[in-house]
Amino acid sequence: MRLSLCFKGMDLRRVVRVLNQCCAPHLADTWDNVGLLVQSSETIVVSRVLVTNDLTEPVLSEARKLETSLIVSYHPPMFSPLKRITNSHWKERLIAACLENRIAIYSPHTGLDAKMNGVNDWLLSPFDLISKKPITPVPHREESVTKLTLPISESFSQFYMSLSGTPVSARLSCIDGPTINLTCSTMSLPSVMKQARDVGILPIGAEEIRKVILFFILTLRDGQ
């Protein structure tokens, strides 16, 4: 399955900050290779994103026809370090073609699996579970979480970008008209509320919903 998204151009670094905020690369397994994997030496303005489960040569061919500037591949196309980039292996050809065509590659993988309301939670949602916990826990602490209901406005993207570095998750709701349900730790709530007010967004409601586990990794990967 593939999805192509087109929007007004945005600097790749800003796009990556948003993706890191949404996809929680710091929660990825230690063996995984997540985040921004390929970037050209020139500044890239992202106006079209191709989302795919696996980046293959046919997918890359489609991305080139669509003039895509960023590919978000759920599975990373490379795990181990490359010793050479030639035409002898399809993965090497992928990386070479992306660099030649100034196409960046980002992979969320196990970070998106592990985050609250991520892939793992989604896969478990059809089941009436009594409890659930990670097979391999990581350092954590309990913290209360607050759900903010925000109106959709033109300044929401500016507000969301200002939260870079603050762990939040956002979901669109259409139950009582289109709104955004933003979940953040109660500890970071004052900062989030200030950022919202600074761009003229007034929350419709706030509710402390439950105690959850927040995960912390002491050392982040280079570039994350």
Automatic annotation (TrEMBL):
Name the record gives this protein: NIF3-like protein 1
PANTHER family: NGG1 INTERACTING FACTOR 3, NIF3-LIKE PROTEIN 1
MF terms in GO: metal ion binding
Family stated for the protein in its record: Belongs to the GTP cyclohydrolase I type 2/NIF3 family.
GO CC, one annotated term: mitochondrion
Domain of life of the source: Eukaryota
InterPro entries the record matches: DUF34/NIF3 (IPR002678), DUF34/NIF3_sf (IPR036069)
